[in-house]
Amino acid sequence: MRPQLQIAADPPQIQLCAFTVGSEEYAIDIHRVLEILQPPALTQVPRAPQVDGVINLRGEIIPLVDLRRVLAASGPMDARRQKLLICMVGRRKIAFRVDKVTQVVRATRDELKPVPPVGKGPLLSPYVVGVCSREHHMILLLNLRAVLGG
Fold first, then answer.
1. Mean pLDDT within 68-74
2. Neighbour count for residue 94 (Cβ, 10 Å)
3. Which residues contact residue 20 at a Cβ distance below 8 angstroms, ignoring those fewer than 6 apart?
4. Nearest to 68 by CA among 113, 43, 99
5. Rounded Cα distance, 97 and 112, in Å
6. Residues 128, 132, 137, 139: what is their CA dihedral angle, to the nearest 10 degrees?
7. Residue 133 in contact with residue 119, Cβ under 8 Å?
8. Rounded Cα distance, 108 and 94, in Å
């Protein structure tokens, strides 16, 4: 019998869609993103606290959430670079407006860290569930269910 060759498997990678909102960079699992597009005309919905309006995407009415409002973003906004991330959250299609889509991040599970607690509450926003530690900066991992209030 010949000895079997042991090949070390690379750790599994996760792909994240990274984007900016204000001066921060966030990311979500790329499998949630159905498409990325230019923001079409928005129809306002009066007294709808969780959504900023709805869009008509090829005949389908989809609620839109502006992440600048939800995350209380600061910093300059360039409307020409804004994008909509059409995402699946549970069984719902939701459009999220972001300032700019930056990159696809390939990360190992070791690079993803939970948000450390401080006292009785989270250190960061309740919408941030972790960070992806990169060489020179960290990308905040966003929980879309929490953004939608559930």
1. 89
2. 22
3. 26, 98, 99, 100, 102
4. 99
5. 24
6. -40
7. no
8. 27
Give the C-alpha separation, 141 to 128, whole Å. Answer: 6
Does residue 59 lie in a domain region? yes
Looking at residue 122, its pLDDT comes to 54
Structural domain count of the chain = 1
Query: φ and ψ at 39, to 5 degrees?
Result: -65, 120
Q: 75 φ, ψ to 5°? A: 100, 165
User: Would you say 47 and 76 are in contact if contact means Cβ atoms under 8 Å apart?
Assistant: no
Question: For tokens 């020409």, what's the residue?
Answer: 80
**Is the pLDDT assigned to residue 135 strictly greater than 80?**
no
Is the pLDDT at 52 greater than 70, yes or no?
yes
Cβ–Cβ under 8 Å, residues 70 and 146 = no
Q: In the structure, what pLDDT confidence band is assigned to residue 121 with cuts at 50, 70 and 90?
A: low
The domain of 23 spans 14-147
Does residue 75 fall inside a structural domain?
A: yes
| Mean of all residue pLDDT scores within the chain | 86
